[in-house]
TrEMBL record:
Lineage: Bacteria, Pseudomonadati, Pseudomonadota, Betaproteobacteria, Burkholderiales
Membrane topology: Single-pass membrane protein
Zinc is among the record's keywords: no
Top-level taxon of origin: Bacteria
Listed GO CC annotations: plasma membrane
UniProt-recorded name of the protein: Flagellar motor protein MotB
Coiled coil: 111-139
Listed Basic and acidic residues bias regions: 86-102
């Protein structure tokens, strides 16, 4: 009993970790939860803002991504797709390359449609010019008294302005190409308006069927009509029209009558100013070009035919190697 009283008493103290519910382990779990929720809401937003076709592309991509990437399809290479990449450029170095079906309607460009559109635009421009000339005739005092002598219409060649004679008011002196003072006034006013359009101009002179007094063999209605057309051209240029606008000046005598039933009617004596459309202008320039080319070819053939098979040059011809080369280009006159 004595020994038991001397045995030492050992007290074990267990230290519990401090902090308890104030520890930080819960923060990690909460951060994981927030991250998962953000990913969930982001996924729901993407699914809600994606079209049905792209959703199918996404589903195909996740089921067999390599197949979709190589074969293409809606969503595989489209820059608007949620899943980027696909097509020929897997790395997207050269940008998105859509290999799927292109739903954009193809545009067909027709030369005929373009020409028709240009023709409509030109017809509209000539109509505006016609209205402007008619307004000028109605408002300008110097032209109002000549309304009956100014005839304006649109033909297949373009806008035609005809200045016709009246019984007591001729445009030119009798049997002459000298313009009357009031005819110059008319031409000056028209010249100011013609510069508003880029179209070329053609002038033609006409007479009635009354034969010229000196007869056909010297000076006839053909020469008279041509001189009157050229006199009108000079007056238009003097009135302010650009000289380069004139493409053709012709005299038609009484071949094209205004009043075919009465060849001697004074109205047949007239000047026609045609503001040509593009088709008429091209037909004139093309005809001139083809004529010069044909002349050049015929001249070259004549030189070739002058040389016989043995190489001997016929009298009056030059040596083949020295034969002048005929330029096959349009004349500048």
């Amino acid at each position: 009993m004595a020994d038991e009283g001397l045995r030492p008493i050992i007290i074990k103290r267990v230290k519990k970790p401090g902090g308890g519910h104030h520890g930080g382990a819960w923060k990690i779990a909460y951060a994981d939860f927030v991250t998962a929720m953000m990913a969930f809401f982001l996924l729901m937003w993407l699914l809600g803002s994606t079209t049905k076709g792209n959703l199918q592309g996404i589903a195909d991509y996740f089921s067999t991504p390599l197949k979709v990437a190589m074969a293409g399809g809606s969503g595989s290479g489209d820059a608007t797709s949620v899943i980027k990449g696909g097509g020929k450029d897997m790395t997207r170095i050269d940008g998105q390359q859509k290999k799927g079906e292109d739903l954009t309607p193809a545009r067909n460009y027709s030369l005929k449609a373009a020409e028709e559109e240009l023709a409509r635009a030109e017809a509209k421009r000539l109509q505006v010019l016609k209205d402007k000339i008619e307004e000028a005739i109605a408002t300008i005092p110097s032209l109002q008294q000549y309304q009956k002598q100014l005839l304006i219409d649109i033909t297949s060649e373009g806008l035609r302005i005809q200045i016709v004679d009246e019984k007591n008011r001729p445009m030119f002196a009798l049997a002459s190409a000298e313009l009357q003072p009031y005819t110059k006034v008319i031409l000056h006013e028209i010249a100011k308006i013609l510069n508003d359009v880029p179209n070329k101009v053609s002038l033609s002179g006409h007479t009635d069927a009354t034969p010229y007094s000196s007869g056909e063999k010297s000076y006839s209605n053909w020469e008279l009509s041509a001189d009157r057309a050229n006199a009108s051209r000079r007056e238009l240029v003097a009135g302010g029209m650009a000289e380069t606008k004139v493409l053709r000046v012709v005299g038609l005598s009484s071949a094209v009558l205004f009043d075919a039933k009465n060849p001697y009617n004074p109205v047949n004596r007239r000047i026609s100013i045609i503001v040509m459309n593009k088709k008429t202008e091209e037909s004139i320039t093309k005809e001139n070009t083809e004529a010069n080319v044909a002349d050049g070819i015929e001249a070259k053939q004549a030189v070739d035919e002058a040389v016989n098979v043995s190489g001997v040059v016929q009298p009056g011809t030059s040596q083949p190697e020295q034969a002048p080369q005929v330029p096959l280009v349009p004349a500048t006159h």
